[in-house]
Structure formats: C-alpha cells, structure tokens
Amino acid sequence: MKSLINSRRLLAVAFLTASLLNLYSQNKTNDTYVPEVGQRGKDVVWVPTPQVLVDTMLSIARVTPKDFVIDLGSGDGRTVITAAKRGAQAMGVEFNPDMVALSRRNAEQAGVTARAQFVEGDLFQADLSKATVITMFLLPEINLKLRPKLLDLKPGTRIVSNTFTMGEWEPDLEVNTPDNWNSWNTALLWIIPAKVEGSWKVGNDELNLTQEFQFVRGTFTSNGKTTAISDGRLNGSEIVFTVGNTKYMARVDGNNMRGTAANTSSKWDWVAVKK
Q1: β-strand 238-243 against 256-262: which pairing, if any?
Q2: What are φ and ψ of residue 94, in 5° steps?
Q3: How far is Cα of residue 160 from the mean position of the Cα atoms in its chain?
Q4: What is the 3-state secondary structure (H, E, C) of 60-75?
Q5: 51-191 has which fold?
Q6: Whole-number Å distance between alpha carbons of 80 and 171
Q7: Of 32, 134, 184, 264, most Cβ neighbours within 10 A?
Q8: How many CB atoms lie within 10 A of CB 197?
Q9: What share of the chain is helix, strand, coil (3-state, %, to 5)?
Q10: Each residue of 139-173: b (16+ CB within 10 Å) or e?
Q11: Mean pLDDT of successive 10-residue stretches along the chain, which has 275 residues
Q12: Domain boundaries defined on the chain
C-alpha cells in the first residue's frame, strides 16, 4: 500500500514537472519569437516599414504630444513606439498575437509602455474615433475598403500611408525619403475633410457646393447674379474658395461656416448656414 502511494506521488511529481517544463518551453518560445519578413497575416504579409520612413510619416502628420495615434496592422510595434517617443499616446491594432506580445516587449525595452499600447484585433473592426492620426502599411484594396470609415472621422484627422494610395482620393501631401530608394520610401498624407456639399445661406445670398473629397466646386448667387466659384478646397475644417476677385476663408462647424472674405479694396466677416 505504501509503495502504491509513493508510486502515485512520483507520477504526480513527474506530471507536474513535465507541465512546468512545457509551460517554460512555451514562454521561452514566445519570448524569443522573431517574425519573418513576408510572413502571412490575416490581410497582408508582414513587411516592416523602414525606420526613416516611419519618422517621415509621423513628421508629415505633425505628430505632437497632443495626438492619439492608431497604427493599423502594427506588426512589431515600431510606428507606435516611435510616436510614443515623440510624446503622443499611441495604439497598435494587430491580428497576430505573437506580434502583439513582441510589440509589448519592444515598447517595454524602449521605456514607453505608459504611452504605447497594443491590442489584438481586426483592423476593420477597430474603434478609430479617438484617433487624431492613423498610420498604415496595407494594400490599395484594403485602403479602399477602409476609406468610407476614414472619411466619417472627425475633420482634421490625419491619415498616413506607406506607399499605397486611396484610389481617386488624392493625397494632400506626398513625400519621398532620400535614404532608401531600394525599399519603401513614399509617405502619403490625407487630411479628413469636413462635409460641405449642399446649399448654404449667406445672408441674402446663396452658396451651392459640390464636393469630391477635399476639392470643392459650386456657385455663389448674389443679387440675382450667379458666379462659379474657383480654387475651392478643404483642409480639415478649413475651407477656401474664390468668387470673382473675392477670396473666402472659413471654418466649418457642422451646419455653420464662419470666416472672412477679402478683395483688393476691403475685408469683411461672413457667416453661412446650411439650408
């Protein structure tokens, strides 16, 4: 009986030892996880953005400590970590749990865990409402799929992409880095425009606008005379356009615009209300 009990104890110890060794082996494997360039992901293969381009992307987006940066498909975390080093709050969304764990270790080594967080999730399901800057290195078809969701974000939100475009939505800025011509070297910036299409009442006058992303066209009717506007453009919530020899500038706030107009002889304030 005593030998049977001892045998059971030995088996239990052996089982516990094997379990601990297996757990240690798993943890060790996770701690030493090294991603391979070109490895498959849910939506794209993983290719890291060169650090010089990461820096350029964040620079053209003018990232400051006031920003909340979200990186879609954050990989090894380098963009999030770089944004956190600039003082911004930053979050990476990554589907691969091993990459998420690696990113967290990289952030800890960089000393930015207070400002850098990583979540395991689907980039199409991510809540982007807090973002003032969104960075990505995806594919054109994925950018197009995301585009409606991006265009519904708060005007002025900055979107930055490594290389890949948004279809017919032209970037507001395109910059090439000089140091890595044999690799990824193009940063593209879009600024989410306010929605201004429709009819606006400007005192006794009327402004009718059509909109294609950040570009604005339309007519201005005053005292029965209708004039086509020119040079219409949005920069986030800021709108500018010209009627004849008068330049109009304003800030859009929902169904209201308020700004100044000026020609060669005078300058005045103006207000518009959407009809």
Answers
A1: unpaired
A2: -140, 135
A3: 6
A4: HCCCCCCCEEEEECCC
A5: Rossmann fold (3.40.50)
A6: 22
A7: 134
A8: 13
A9: 25, 35, 35
A10: eeebbbebbeebbebebebbbbbbebbbeebebbe
A11: 41 39 41 75 82 96 98 96 98 96 97 98 96 96 97 98 97 89 86 98 97 98 96 98 97 98 96 97
A12: 51-191, 198-274
pLDDT of 13: 36
SS3 126: coil
* pLDDT value of residue 31: 62
270 CB-contact burial (10 Å; exposed 0-12 / middle 13-18 / buried 19+):
middle
- Which residue, among 258, 260, 259, 264, has the nearest Cα to 244 in the 3D structure? 264
pLDDT value for 181: 62
Helices (H), the chain: 2-31, 51-60, 78-85, 97-110, 140-151
The pTM for the full model equals 0.85
For residue 176, what pLDDT is reported? Answer: 93
Per the CB < 8 A criterion, the answer to whether 269 and 247 are in contact is no
C-alpha 239 chain-centroid distance: 22
What per-residue confidence (pLDDT) applies to 21? 39
Give the integer Cα–Cα distance in Å for 103 and 92.
9
Fold held by 198-274: Lipocalin (2.40.128)
Closest CA to 46 of 153, 231, 184: 184
| Distance (Å, whole) CA 34 – CA 76 | 9
- Residue from 166, 230, 162 nearest 193 by CA: 166
